[in-house]
Design goal:
9 helices
Length: about 260
């Protein structure tokens, strides 16, 4: 009984560290193959379109309602002590530094991350990746490198668009519904915002894009177990990417605050 318990603990420990070691090796291979030829530029542009443009609807929807509800809550709260003129400041600061990158990343992880994991997982279980090896093609260079860098490039662009839409949504609620002064709203939004606030949000977005793309590619690339394995890899990719995004958000905020 005790031996079985120790055996399970040992198997879990070996599996855990083995998976992390495999992930690190795959990341190093991805970085090493980045500048090698062929570059597969068409694959990269297709993935930028898939991750970026195709994610715009959900990003816009999430951003505008986030900005609107944030403005509504802040205005009503600040009105109690006569500071409602600072609504634009707090909305802009919160969106640019924190809520914009995190919420956009979580939405993209749920949409594009799940799709990439399912696609690569299906290729693995149907032996299409093995066929690439048989054709002397490098699956990491052909499949993972374009997706990885597409995530790094596309997510900051989505965050910039999402931030602008969220701030505009806050303006619509504050000025159009709650009667705030439009000039004061915009002045306070930009007068108290520094370039570093924008840069810190873009740094987060870049890291989050890398996390989403790599976690999805790793889970799909290492899928096993047929259709059930594909479903398990897809779920693990979304949950793992979301967890790493939230953890990375704390450490990046601690470093750049």
């Amino acid at each position: 009984m005790k031996g079985n318990a120790f055996g399970r603990v040992g198997a879990f420990t070996l599996g855990f560290f083995g998976a992390w070691g495999e992930a690190v090796m795959l990341l190093l291979r991805t970085l090493r193959f980045t500048l090698g030829r062929p570059l597969y530029l068409r694959n990269f542009l297709y993935q930028v379109e898939f991750i970026g443009i195709h994610s715009l609807p959900v990003v816009l929807l999430t951003s505008i309602f986030t900005g609107m509800v944030l403005a509504l809550q802040i205005f009503n709260g600040f009105e109690r002590f006569g500071a409602e003129s600072l609504t634009g400041t707090v909305v802009g600061y919160s969106i640019v530094r924190e809520l914009g990158p995190v919420l956009v990343a979580l939405m993209v992880a749920g949409r594009a991350g799940a799709a990439m994991a399912a696609e690569l997982g299906t290729m693995r279980v149907t032996q299409q990746i093995d066929a690439l090896y048989a054709l002397s093609a490098n699956p990491v260079r052909y499949l993972i490198v374009p997706r990885f860098w597409a995530g790094v490039v596309a997510l900051p662009l989505l965050v910039v668009i999402g931030d602008a839409v969220a701030i505009w949504g806050g303006y619509v609620v504050s000025v159009g519904m709650l009667g705030a002064n439009p000039v004061v709203y915009w002045d306070n939004t930009f007068d108290f915002m520094e370039l570093w606030d924008v840069y810190s949000g873009l740094i987060k977005a870049t890291v989050f894009g890398a996390i989403i793309a790599f976690v999805a590619c790793y889970q799909g690339f290492t899928t096993s177990g047929g259709a059930r394995g594909v479903g398990r890899a897809t779920t693990t990719a979304v949950v793992g990417a979301a967890s790493l995004i939230l953890a990375a958000n704390y450490f990046i905020t601690y470093l750049v605050v």
